[in-house]
Amino acid sequence: MTEFQNIFSVVWMIFSLSFLVALTGAMSPGPLLTYTIIKSVKTSQRGYLMGLWIITGHALLEMCVIVLLLYGFSFFLQNVIVVRAIGIIGGILLIAFGSSIMRNVYRGNISTDFMDEGAPSGEGELIKNPVLGGFMISMANPYWWVWWATIGFAFMIQFEISFQDWSKLIAFFLGHEAGDLIWYLTVSILSFWGIRRLNKKAYYGILYCCGLFMILFGLYLGISPFFKAT
Length: 230
Known about the structure:
Elements lengths: L1 H25 L4 H12 L7 H21 L3 H4 L2 H28 L22 H10 L2 H17 L7 H29 L5 H24 L7
Helix pairs in contact: 1-8, 2-6, 2-8, 2-9, 3-6, 3-8, 5-7, 5-9
């Protein structure tokens, strides 16, 4: 019984710490947060669940990265050439997404029917499928890759996360995804029930700011890796 309690305490500690580390990272502003807000307010039916589906896609990508790290691919993610390539590609994608939002706002092509009670369902901007969107937006962010190659990988080494101990591996993964899920689901719920009560001009203003943020963040992601020491 004592051995079981020891295993449980270790697993619970890994889950809790992984949860807290993920939560602090998830709460930092970024393209995935912007995408979640936009998808939540643009989806008329069950938009409050967008955070769940977006993090599902995000979690699938993180599962792949964890497997790669366990197989010894951390050096690949720390390579300056790889970081710069990801920065350029990710920056271009984010600039394209942000430009699309701002262009549609300027042209008035974004429907606000979802603000009307009983309005039919409407598709969100950007990537229509939220699971695919969560996957692609995360993959386009080079700093997400850098986080896993440094903080995430250091955490895995510290607590000896490996295929040899599935209890630790599962606790680490579930704790991390639980932190992401709680934050982004909260964001999608608040966005769906809060922003939907705004008038059209206010909503367009928020979308325009989100689009501008994605463009600026994309420029930053594309340029900043070249100013880091090799």
